[in-house]
Design brief:
heterodimer; A: mainly beta; 6-stranded mixed β-sheet; 11 strands; 0% helix; globular; B: 113 residues; mainly beta; 7-stranded mixed β-sheet; 55% strand
Chain lengths: 110, 113
């Protein structure tokens, strides 16, 4: 079992719709959770950080964390073609070890 | 504009040669990570440091890879000897330990022929 798991996709979303991405992790001691966006040929870019259970909203992005279920998700509202990218879930364990999932490729179709 | 700087951006080398990749973390950041990204394996953590001390290098092939932080402004990743299977994009990232997040450099694309 991988430490951080994501559906590889692609997740195809019509422009203007909500994209919903999911991530599960295996280490119950994990303390910090992140979503990164990576465009093809570019480096990962941090878009959301979440540290406690519940929702955190930033613009069109909402991150949701449920530590009991070991589950973190990302919602992208009003999806735009520019949101087409690979979204990486990252989980921080004790000692700051940061482990990434395999990423979910998102395609927003006009 | 604070950013992580990596050099070189691209490197093509012959099998058996030594490769050195350099990283300048964001000033003030106390945690530095080295990752390798391939299509097959995704982003793999090779090693990471806090306050220049290595915390975990279990992701690195020990016989050929080494990572160091000679000072707070420089991290290095060396491969000796390089092999074709080392071809990948190598990312350096830095962050603050109390936040846990990491900010990535632009990466070094390594091709070993």
């Amino acid at each position: 079992q991988k430490e951080v798991e994501q559906n590889s996709g692609p997740l195809s979303v019509p422009e203007g719709a909500i994209a919903s991405l999911n991530c599960t992790y295996s280490d119950r001691g994990s303390q910090s959770f992140f979503w990164y966006r990576q465009y093809s040929g570019k480096s990962p870019e941090l878009i959301m950080s979440i540290y406690s259970n519940g929702d955190k909203e930033d613009g069109r992005f909402t991150a949701q964390l449920n530590k009991a279920s070991q589950y973190v998700s990302l919602l992208i509202r009003d999806s735009q073609p520019s949101d087409s990218a690979t979204y990486l879930c990252a989980v921080g364990a004790a000692g700051n070890k940061l482990t990434f999932g395999g990423g979910t490729r998102v395609l927003v179709k006009p | 504009d604070a950013r992580v700087t990596q050099t070189p951006r691209d490197k093509v080398t012959e099998m058996g040669q030594e490769v050195t990749m350099r990283c300048q973390p964001i000033l003030g950041h106390n945690t530095v990570f080295w990752y390798r990204q391939t299509m097959m394996q995704g982003l793999e953590l090779l090693a990471y440091f806090r306050n220049r001390a290595p915390l975990d290098d279990s992701g690195m092939p020990k016989d050929r890879f080494s990572a160091e932080m000679p000072d707070a402004t420089l991290a290095t990743l060396k491969i000796q000897p390089s092999e074709p299977r080392d071809s990948a994009v190598y990312f350096c990232a830095s962050g603050l330990a109390d936040r846990g997040e990491a900010f990535f450099g632009q990466g070094t694309r390594l091709t070993v022929v």
